[in-house]
Write a structure and sequence with these properties.
The strands form ten sheets. This protein has a five-stranded mixed β-sheet. It has six helices and 30 strands. By secondary structure, it is an alpha+beta fold. It folds into two domains: 139 residues, Immunoglobulin-like (Sandwich); 277 residues, no CATH class. 49% of the residues are buried. Helix content is 14%, strand content 31%. A hairpin with a 5-residue loop joins strand 16 and strand 17. The structure holds calcium ion (4 copies). One calcium ion (CA) binds next to strand 8, strand 9 and strand 14.
């Protein structure tokens, strides 16, 4: 066995190559990528990837790959959050992300730039509670930074306990919001803007300038129904709920939105407020819900954002959560988003409390390493060529794992490093079953 190659050396080689690639990419026009979450577990049509779950964030570029790829999955969250309930299993991810936006400060969001809301209250490692009306940023190591709290939002809108189910920061800094349930307000201006009614329907799109008490209704329930009617060229009586919001990347000032109705023409569709209401039009594709998401069935998109796309992020998927017992077959970690036909290094360690360490990167900001340096699997995985894989022409590949090589009864954390781009994946944890 060769002596371990320090991860930082591998990374610096990767960064040199990445600088050349970045120069080549800059001259090409960038398509828009859509990042979304779904409301119910749905299969990906190609069958190449596991089912998409309500907590997963998936990435899709209309009219390009026609396939949905993971961006942040339950398995990533389990590794980043740690064994919160100390039952010995990395099984503590929230069940459902129901709102998604970001502050838009970098060219492509990392999972730590995203602003999220969950469908139910959740408890991170180290205590505290994230409420379903809170908007939070995931922090490396599994804590959450509150960007806007349920208490603030209910205070400025003069409502009671609320659940935010759609959010979008606009370039102006205004934060658009929608609630999961109909909410009663005592705010005089909101009542006035709501046609005299104190009940804000769950379709209502509110605007708030964070840090101030300035709040307004941007679109009433009636406005939303009218825009969807115009888009579908049908008389719609209900859209059930507004569940996703994002700035429209094609029509400055307009807003993309999704609804919870499962009616044909509404489920899986993305609407824009542009022109008084239309189906969104992104990368030359009309997002009317007819299969653009590469999913096995039309799915309600309960969280949405867009950004200038381009290269997929390096992402990992594990077939199942647990490796089989020794002798009963192998499992594999799949990756995509690597630079085609270049080498991906997998780095392992035994899983414990999340202890990320920063990897400053001139191209990607600060990345975080999760495997523990000094752990016996860490040095072994870097030194052993079996933990390297070459990406195919589409940047995909796989790492077969033979469970007999590891002691059972442990959880193993795995992260991938793309040597060509210098990018690292988010970690995943897999459990090795007892013999
Ligand atoms: Ca969801
Ligand atoms: Ca647990
Ligand atoms: Ca929520
Ligand atoms: Ca809503």
């Amino acid at each position: 066995m060769r002596s371990p190659v320090p991860l930082r050396t591998l990374l610096s080689i990767g960064l040199c190559l990445a600088a050349l690639l970045a120069g080549a990419e800059a001259s090409q026009a960038q398509p828009q990528a859509l990042l979304s979450s779904i409301a119910r577990t749905t299969e990906v049509r190609s069958g190449r990837y596991r089912p998409v779950e309500p907590v997963d964030l998936v990435r899709f570029e209309p009219d390009l790959s026609q396939e949905t790829y993971p961006f942040l999955t339950r398995q990533n969250l389990e590794a980043i959050l740690g064994d919160v309930n100390r039952n010995g299993e990395f099984d503590d991810a929230p069940a459902d992300i129901d709102a998604l936006t970001w502050l838009g400060t970098t060219s492509r969001p990392s999972v730590y730039d995203l602003v999220l809301s969950f469908a139910a209250a959740s408890t991170p490692l180290g205590g505290g509670v994230v409420l379903d009306g809170d908007l939070v940023r995931l922090q490396p190591g599994g804590s959450f930074l509150v960007v806007a709290s349920e208490a603030e939002i209910s205070s400025v809108t003069a409502t009671r306990t609320i659940d935010v189910d759609a959010a979008a920061f606009l370039p102006s800094g205004e934060l658009l919001l929608s609630f999961t349930e109909d909410e009663v307000t005592t705010h005089a201006l909101l009542i006035q803007q709501n046609g005299g009614s104190s009940t804000l329907g769950d379709e209502t799109i509110l605007g708030w300038k964070p840090g101030t008490t300035e709040v307004r209704i941007v679109y009433t329930t009636a406005d939303v129904i009218q825009m969807v009617s115009r888009a579908t060229q049908k008389t719609i009586s209900s859209v059930v709920n507004v569940v996703g919001l994002a700035p429209d990347p094609v029509n400055p000032g307009a807003v993309l939105f999704t609804v919870a109705s499962t009616a044909k023409g509404l489920v899986g569709a993305v609407f824009t407020t542009a022109g008084g209401g239309a189906y969104a039009y992104v990368n030359g594709k009309v997002l009317d819900g007819t299969g653009e998401w590469g999913l096995g069935a039309a799915a309600t998109l309960d969280a949405l954002l867009t950004y200038a796309g381009g290269k997929d992020p390096l992402a990992l998927e594990v077939e199942g959560k647990r490796l089989p017992a020794p002798g009963s077959g192998a499992a594999e970690v799949r990756f995509h988003g690597a630079v085609p036909q270049t080498t991906v290094q997998f780095v392992l360690s035994y899983a414990g409390p999340p202890a990320p360490w920063p990897l400053p990167s001139p191209l990607h900001g600060v990345l975080f390493g999760y495997p523990t340096p000094g752990d016996p699997l860490f040095g072994w995985s870097i030194a052993d060529p079996r933990f390297r894989a070459v990406a195919d022409a589409e940047g995909r590949g796989r790492l077969p794992l033979a469970p007999g090589a590891h002691p059972p009864g442990f959880s193993v954390l795995i992260q991938a490093l793309d040597l060509a781009s210098g990018e690292v994946s988010e970690p995943v944890v897999i459990d090795l079953v007892q013999p």
